[in-house]
């Protein structure tokens, strides 16, 4: 079956962001720099430390990222969010607390009418997160 993963684009701070996400969510982080690519000798030294491809994987959760930005630059918006379906109320609270540090906790975790604990936030890198725990699941 096909799957969809989040792929985030950063403007030179992919390593910092992905390390932050690993600290918040756990998992194994793999970082590949531009300097490690096959064409590294043709790349200016100043961008060799930039991240060409990053993968943070934990169980079924996969977040990918890069510092590779088009010439027009990075354009942030609110059209994409990453939703984490948590396995417990405690996990939801921990993820929400950690991810919102330095960001904006726009909608604190609250239980809705269906028994679902839900909240959203924007992290310090400008990325939107939806935190969800369905007690009835």
UniProtKB/TrEMBL annotation:
| The organism's place on the tree of life at top rank | Bacteria
Occurrences of domain PhnB-like (ranges): 4-131
What the entry lists under InterPro entries is as follows:
Glyas_Bleomycin-R_OHBP_Dase, PhnB-like
The UniProt entry, under PANTHER family, shows: PROTEIN YJDN, PROTEIN YJDN-RELATED
What is the protein's given name? Answer: VOC family protein
């Amino acid at each position: 079956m096909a799957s969809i993963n989040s792929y985030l684009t950063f403007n030179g701070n992919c390593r910092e962001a992905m390390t932050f996400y690993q600290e918040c969510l756990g998992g194994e982080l793999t970082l590949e720099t531009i300097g490690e690519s096959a064409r590294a000798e043709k790349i200016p030294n100043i961008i060799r430390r930039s991240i060409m491809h990053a993968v943070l994987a934990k169980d079924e959760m996969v977040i990918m990222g890069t510092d590779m930005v088009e010439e027009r630059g990075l354009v942030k918006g609110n059209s994409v969010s990453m939703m984490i379906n948590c396995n417990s109320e405690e996990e939801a609270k921990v993820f929400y607390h950690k991810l919102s540090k330095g960001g904006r906790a726009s909608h604190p975790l609250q239980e809705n009418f269906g028994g679902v604990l839900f909240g959203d936030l924007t992290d310090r890198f400008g990325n939107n997160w939806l935190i969800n725990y369905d007690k009835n699941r």
